[in-house]
Specification:
The chain has 180 residues and is an alpha/beta fold. The chain has helices at 17-28, 32-41, 44-54, 66-77, 90-100, 118-127, 142-147, 158-167; strands spanning 4-6, 82-89, 105-109, 133-136, 150-154, 170-174. The chain contains eight helices and six strands.
Length: 180
């Protein structure tokens, strides 16, 4: 059984932590938008790290997708190696992993590099040279699915789901949850 790498935003949880952090930061004081733009000039990973330090994640309160979490626990219980692979900041990813207790590995953005799309694919290929399965939900995941032995499609838009089914071996599909 190939290791299973699972994305966080939109896949394991029904929100985007970076977007939520940016909204919270800018809502506090509108001029924070200028600060955010300055951070973004240094890269998305830098901005994510800054926001994560200001707003630490309460992993217990996140809106997990119960279907994905139950399946992930089943996979772990069956002996499958599991990894959380997210473009969110390492501190928040570690908090989620510690709370859930189902991940053998945690890969995340580190303040310098944004672990998304091709970077995530490269990182997972290096960690799992014999192949891996990747669970994701967005167009940026196409590059990761291209590197994976199989795709798990979670809450994807219908067009993306069709494209992924056409291009990749699909292990499992979790249809879009309309209440998300």
């Amino acid at each position: 059984m190939k290791p299973l790498a699972v994305d966080l935003d939109g896949t394991l949880i029904k929100t985007d932590l970076f977007a939520r952090g940016m909204a919270r930061f800018c809502a506090a004081r509108p001029w924070h938008a200028l600060v955010l733009l300055w951070w973004l000039r240094r890269g998305r990973a830098h901005a994510k790290a800054k926001l994560a330090s200001l707003y630490p994640i309460d992993a217990a309160s996140l809106p997990y997708d119960a279907r994905v979490l139950a399946w992930l626990r089943e996979q772990k219980a069956a002996g499958r190696i599991t990894a959380l692979a997210t473009a969110f900041d390492q501190a928040g990813a570690n908090a989620v992993a510690a709370h859930l207790g189902v991940f053998d590995h945690v890969f995340a953005s580190d303040g310098r590099g944004n672990l998304k799309s091709a970077r995530k694919a490269d990182r997972l290929r290096r960690e799992f040279p014999d192949g891996f399965v990747y669970a994701g939900n967005e167009r940026a995941d196409l590059k990761v699915w291209s590197a994976a032995a199989a795709a798990v499609i979670v809450n994807a838009a219908p067009a993306l789901e069709r494209e992924a089914k056409r291009r990749f071996t699909v292990e499992r599909i979790f249809p879009r949850d309309e209440v998300a």
